[in-house]
Design a protein that fits this description.
By secondary structure, the chain is of the alpha+beta class. The chain has helices at about 10-20, 80-100, 100-105, 120-125, 140-150, 190-200; strands at about 50, 55-60, 65-75, 105-110, 135, 155-160, 165-170, 170-175, 180-185. The chain is about 30% helix and about 25% strand.
Length: about 200
């Protein structure tokens, strides 16, 4: 496997469903039923302070009032990370055309699992290809703590060509305006799937 990524979304979503589903849909007092978000009771996410591609300290509270679309990856990933990020960002561009008000409320965030190589300068180069994307790095300890709170697995794997690759969870999670977990977004299925999942869960 070229990218060394835990990239079976079907198994991951099945696992998430078993652990995190909140129960049957809730009915509002009037009007149509609204689905309960799949991750409504999930214990993932939480406060963090990291460094963005411009070298500025960024905290979770800086995104208050916005939906956060969070993806963990690394800039030297040879396959799935660039594909996934491209799908996410194309989905958001498409959403901006069909529903600009909703798109303006979504903040895509890339958190590296390779802080040793992903300096702010490298993240800056990476995000230049994806306008609107915020990329975050930190110390090894900071990234380990954030990954743990977001239930993200990652591990360094030796590679003879570039020294090492990072084996890591492949998922995009949508969090609400107060930082609450809402649902997984199927970025591996393309931009249309990203748009559909956002429209389904962000209101």
């Amino acid at each position: 496997m070229a990218g060394r990524t835990m990239n079976n979304p079907i198994l991951f979503r099945a696992f998430a469903a078993l652990l995190l589903l909140a129960g049957p849909p809730l009915l509002s007092g009037c009007g149509p039923a609204r689905e309960t978000p799949p991750l409504a009771d999930a214990r993932i996410g939480g406060p963090f302070t990291l460094t963005d591609q411009d070298g500025r300290k960024v905290s979770d509270t800086d995104f208050a009032g916005k939906y956060r679309l969070i993806y963990f990856g690394y800039t030297t990933c040879p396959d799935v990370c660039p594909l996934d990020v491209n799908n996410i960002m194309k989905g958001l561009r498409d959403l901006a055309k069909s529903d600009p008000q909703l798109a303006a409320r979504i903040q895509p965030i890339f958190i590296t699992v390779d802080p040793a190589r992903d300096t702010p300068e490298r993240l800056k180069t990476y995000t230049n290809a994806f306008p609107g994307l915020i990329a975050l790095t930190g110390s090894e300890e900071q990234i380990a703590a954030v990954a743990k709170s977001f239930a993200v697995y990652y591990k360094k794997v030796p590679d003879p060509n570039i020294g090492y690759l990072m084996d890591h969870s492949r998922m995009t999670a949508l969090f609400g305006p107060q930082g609450q977990p809402i649902a997984l977004v199927a970025q591996e299925n393309g931009a249309k799937s990203v748009v559909a999942d956002i429209k389904r869960w962000a209101h």
